[in-house]
Amino acid sequence: MNNLLLLEDDISLIDGLQYSLNKNGFHVDIARTVEEAKNSLTDINKYDLLILDVTLPDGTGFDVCEKVRKQNTQIPIIFLTASDEEVNVIRGLDCGGDDYVTKPFKLGELCSRIRALLRRAGVSSQDKTNILKCGDISIDLLASRVLLNGRILELTNAEYRLLCLLVRNANRVVSRDIILNDLWDGTGNFVDDNTLSVYIRRLREKVEIDASHPQHLITVRGFGYQWKEVEA
């Protein structure tokens, strides 16, 4: 049974979510404030995934996410938000979130996203056995560390997975559908194009000298994206 931490202050939502998630085979601990969540996460290794509401009485889920990413870069994080405005999506992804669900949501959708993130976390932990090199970029799959021209890139978990996919397929065009299906384990119907566009834009800002004139992460209009090998 996977252990989840739910940060949510709406009691009616908590009761329904806890009951339903338990029925779906998840054990759920509850935190109703940012402070409670941070106290629960003193032993972060006991959790497999975090579900964080955005707006809390004493802060935001973003605060918790940022603290967590300083301790553990791999644990999956889903945001619950009452708004799907791009500014909230960007903030959540920038601080290290892996996915977001807009209220009101269907329980089946949430459970599918949870399972997809847990599967990816399990696969990635078994697949960290070597170094992936491509021109001026080197990815240490064991340490989840990326070096570009000898400089360490600070990437969110989602940005790291996206980069690995593109670099593995260097010099080939990867369609948006393939990216969504690969990163979200076939649950791409739950992820809109806007989310992927945010990932691409933020990753490009970190890997390019001039994001307006990219050399590495190229958009192939009407098809998808391509990682071009650039010699060190």
Morphology call:
elongated
What's the CATH topology label of the largest domain? Answer: Rossmann fold
Let me know the CATH homologous superfamily of the largest domain. Response regulator
Overall CATH architecture of the largest domain? 3-Layer(aba) Sandwich
Largest sheet: 5 strands, parallel
Number of helices: 8
Q: Supply the CATH class of the largest domain.
A: Alpha Beta
The helix/strand class is alpha/beta
Give the radius of gyration.
18 Å
Mean pLDDT: 85
- Low-pLDDT parts are 123-129
Oligomer: single chain
Protein name: Stage 0 sporulation protein A homolog
Domain Response regulatory: 3-118
Pfam families: Response_reg, Trans_reg_C
GO biological process, one term: regulation of DNA-templated transcription
Q: Notable features of this structure?
A:
2 domains, alpha/beta, Rossmann fold, Arc Repressor Mutant, subunit A, elongated, 41% helix, 14 strands, 8 helices, 232 residues, five-stranded parallel β-sheet
Could you characterize what this model shows?
The protein is 41% helix and 24% strand. It has 232 residues and is α/β, with parallel strands linked by helices. The chain folds into two domains: 2-121, Rossmann fold (3-Layer(aba) Sandwich), CATH 3.40.50.2300; 131-227, Arc Repressor Mutant, subunit A, CATH 1.10.10.10. The longest helix has 20 residues, at 107-126. The chain is elongated and about 55 Å long.
